[in-house]
Amino acid sequence: MKYAVNRQALRDRIYNKGYRVAYMSDVLNISRMGFFKKMRGDSPFKEQEVKVLCDVLDIGQSELSYFFKPKDDKLINHRRTK
User: Fold this and answer.
1) Quick one: fold of 2-72?
2) 0.70 cut: is pTM over it?
């Protein structure tokens, strides 16, 4: 299963834990650009990537749905248009 992300919440958690994009992309074994694409919603996070992020960022089961939604959830995937 693939997951969309609550970008602001995940970004805040990453920085509040003291991590940066370079570290997170290394942990996920993806490029920095790949990580940015996932954060922007251009590419979904894979289930294994979500598990790794949860471990690294101390995201518990009770918080999981706040940060990640299954890719077919239209609320998270909707991109704002100007």
Assistant:
1) 434 Repressor (Amino-terminal Domain) (1.10.260)
2) yes
